[in-house]
Amino acid sequence: MATRRPPQLPAAVMRTVVRTLVRPVLGPRVPVSAQRRWLDAVSATTPPARDVDIRAGELGGRPTEVMVPATTPTTGEVLYLHGGGFTTGSAATHRTLASHLASASGAVVHLLDYRLAPEHPFPAALDDVLAAYRELRERVDRPERTVLAGDSAGGWLALTAALRLRDEGSPLPAALALVSPWLDLSGADRRDDRTDPMLQPAWMARCAGQFAPGRDLRSPELAPLAADLAGLPPLVVQVGSEEILLDESVRLAQRARAAGVPVDLRRFDGMWHVFQVSAGSVRESTTAVAALGEAVAAHLSAR
Question: Is 243 labeled as catalytic in the residue annotation?
Fold first, then answer.
């Protein structure tokens, strides 16, 4: 008997849900603790992929959720870094996305619970990512088959970690997979001219201030978009056309290509910030994660 798939919501309906239930909560006046509780609760409505086993793990001294494809040959490892403005986000908010990525890529996906601001400001989260990445490579038989991936603030962490690894001469991941990466924490060059149903610039400004209090957000250690990108591994980037971070993904692709880095940039028309979290419930989200998984699998199998 064929497995019955859950009903798929039209993208327009999910956009309304995001605008109604998520955007108002992601505001500068809502306490971080309340935002965390609400996002975890809302995310429970999107179930993880059915063909993936989810296990508890640990990397670099931090908890992980390990997504193991149940029926697909393992192609490699993915260290996934969730978004949430460095202040929110958890395994609960990104379990669905990470599990569908595991299913689509055939890779084991490690969803890292890195430390959050404001309790743990920069560089705590970045330190956690680097420690987890190094331990993951030590554990596996084919460390060259490891990808760093992340969305939004997690995209910043993935790109910044790769730059740090390159500069110190450490082994690099096979690729970077970035979903709607937030790369300009200062917001100085961002044009707020999009109909983003999720992000508020004022909330992003608060998050950046809590992540790096008292620091110049355009300093080299916090501005990966301004860094020399030469020598980085291939980039796979997904972004929606209706989000205020669209220009940052485009600029990243332009600068990376100019530096000789292969880039696969895919823009999804009519979609919003990290719409991929609705994989399995919205056709466009499922399609996007499937494409991301295929790209990740291709880079892993090339090693």
Answer: yes
Mean pLDDT value across the chain: 95
- Out of 99, 103, 105, 152, pick the active-site residue: 152
Single-letter amino acid, residue 14:
M
Tell me if residue 77 is catalytic.
no
Q: Would you identify the CATH topology of the domain 49-301? A: Rossmann fold (3.40.50)
CB neighbours of 24 closer than 8 A, spacing ≥ 6?
none
* Residue 82 designated active-site: no
Rounded Cα gap, residues 95 and 116, in angstroms: 17
Break the chain into its structural domains and give their ranges.
49-301
* CA–CA separation, 96 and 50 (whole Å): 10
302 Cβ partners below 8 Å, 6+ apart? Answer: 174
Choosing from 242, 243, 248, 284, the catalytic residue is: 243
Mean pLDDT of 131-146: 97
pLDDT for the residue numbered 160: 98
